[in-house]
Fold these 2 entries.
Entry 1:
Amino acid sequence: MSQNHAGVVAIYPGSFDPITSGHLDVIERGSRFCDRLIVAILRNESKSPLFSVEERTEMLRDVTSHCPNVEIDNFGGLLADYAMRKQARVIVRGIRAISDYEKELQMALMNRRLQPELETIFLLAGEQYSFISSRLVKEVFRLGGDITGLVPPSVELRLRARLAQPVANETAKL
Ligand code: PNS
């Protein structure tokens, strides 16, 4: 880590429902240029997530255990406010394709308006992950498709266990 990067705290926010191999790639790349990378799960029950915040936290902790400067947290409310509370000045987002750009630009500019000292840095996920999203992984898995390599192996096991559960409530549905 160069001197210029000393003390850099960055936040990688997202839903991570569940974490994909593309997310993990961004975490690994991002953790190399900051001192602390906080992976922050958005608490947003209105999205009817497949996995609870606690389950997503466990999965993220498990797959990032080899990254000593990565922490897992969760947040509600505005990302810009959360970043200030964490004394972070950098937000990391992954860009997969040009189609991500418009939404990401809007969010970055809004966050900068809310907190002018907050910089958003975009990382390109590995091209082998450029088509992966949590939503598509869940859909393909539910319909019996092969998701090997699209999510870390431990996440695939969690998906398998969740699919095997009788659907007791809405959130158990993929
Ligand atoms: O993985 P996602 O679902 O694309 O992540 C979106 C996320 C969590 C980064 C975004 O929805 C967010 O920051 N939500 C927090 C609420 C907020 O700050 N909204 C204004 C952002 S411009």
Entry 2:
Amino acid sequence: MADLDDRRIVLGVTGGVAAYKAAELTRLLVKAGAAVDVVMTEAAGHFVAPTTFQALSGRPVASGLWDSGPRGMAHIDLSRGADAVLVAPATADFIAKLAHGFADDLLSTLCLARDCPLLVAPAMNRQMWENPATRRNAAQLGADGIVILGPASGEQACGEVGEGRMLEAAELCEELVAFLQPRILAGRRVLLTAGPTFEALDPVRGITNSSSGRMGFALARACREAGAVVTLVAGPVALPTPRGVVRKDVVSALDMRREVMAAVDGHDIFIGVAAVADYRPVESRPHKIKKGSGNMTLELAANPDILAEVAARPVRPFCVGFAAESQNLDEYAQGKRQAKRLPLVVGNLVQHGLGGETNQVCLYDDHGVHPVPPGDKLSVARAIVTHIAGMLS
Ligand code: C5P
């Protein structure tokens, strides 16, 4: 199932250069399964033609207050049954209108008449964004329960650099998907580990494993979508940080342990997804090891078990472990749960190594085994989050 299947989104487009990103956003929302009704202001039409949005959404584009819809009441009908109205880009002028309740075109009128959540993605020159009038208006939107997405900081179309850029289409799509998830971890603080660790042998070599970090990153995203405050301690991976997640990068198991122990107080949930190396070289050489003629023996020292250490604290968060096994999954996963005193273990069979796009897991708790439908890692992560929230409630 796609993220926005069965959802209807009204996408408002106002007159800013970033309107070109709204075309890509329309495509991404449609690709995610949403029915998208685009409503443009007259000014937006100076940047992108309605035909573009019509072609991308496959639905008629509305613009004028007087081009009616079937009942002659487009300003009412468009938001009825919609899951959200998202205005992207939202100009300074449009934000001012929303803050004051003006209704002098179709988009502002439907925003006033809506019966669903409203999200806006500001896009404007940095001085306009910093102007006290815009700050007042944006604060008013927040007080009125309107969600403000961004803006981002960076290079602007006018050539200046600063805060006011609209978020990228993919970021807006991710934010909207997150907004529509149930807030089942609202008020919770979650700490996760993800990825492999790298145990250095010398400045260029080390011991690691094939964990991609995708499952841990997907879980961090799913926890944040569910309303949690999330900190992610990540081993060496090349993955983008999920939006709204605080990330701390580490290399070795000892680094990971240090970051986790420094952060764990005050967290309600700890999820150890990382494939932490069980052993590290006793000695990490300061210079590259030179090739010899015969075999070489490496002496390894056991690494601390981070999860077991967190779970053994007198005041401990709700601890979730992962068990990636190549055989006897039920036995090993339940054994690990008992040995580390964990309320929940997520187990999966890894006959073909770690790091794929999809996953198939079973959840092990006091009540037994709960298989999760196989799927992409984000949908599996959401199912795990639902189970955790159920255990905590
Ligand atoms: O005992 P095993 O290594 O199979 O346990 C896996 C679980 O323990 C995972 O949740 C993993 O993140 C965690 N772990 C850890 N520190 C280690 C080894 C494993 O936190 N040194």
